[in-house]
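@channel sequence for tomorrow's demo:
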Amino acid sequence: MKFELTVELPEDMASERREKELSRILRYWAGNMKHYELVDGDSSEIYDSEYRQVGTWTISE
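structure tokens (generated this afternoon):
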């Protein structure tokens, strides 16, 4: 199984805010993975705290 998480935060975002956003995203998805089967093809969009899509995660074999 391969788990891939891609997050692209705006380059013009202050570095302190980028750190907080990434930390929030990682905490959220670490706790949320229990709601997925984690089988080939599973995926979800990732949003920042302002509900803008900033990435995805995917499962593949």
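heads up for whoever presents: The helical segments are 15-32.
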